[in-house]
User: What shape does this take?
Amino acid sequence: MRTYIRSAALVAVLGLVAVVAHADTLLIDRHEAGEAAPHPARGALMSTVESAYGPPLHRVGPVGDPPITRWVYENFSVYFEHSHVITTVVNKAHADETGPRPVN
Assistant: This one.
């Protein structure tokens, strides 16, 4: 009986380790992946971004005050305040990541 309990406990611990090892991608992983990938520079104009990267797949905004607009490209999203880039966020840090869920 004790062997069965120890075996069951070992299986449970190994299962938890497997779950932790397959955890979600952290925001810092996305940030580090984004630093290495080509992306629009902070302060760039919308027209500069569009001429360099083409039209976005999707445009969201403007929302709020100051107006924040988001352009979604295949690998990254660009956030603008008025017409200037304020930040760029990588959509996925690696191909296996499921990424953020789309906002409806």
Summary: The beta strands are 58-63, 68-72, 76-81, 84-90. The two ends are 53 Å apart (CA to CA). The helical segments are 2-21, 27-36, 46-53. Residues 22 and 70 are 30 Å apart (CA to CA).
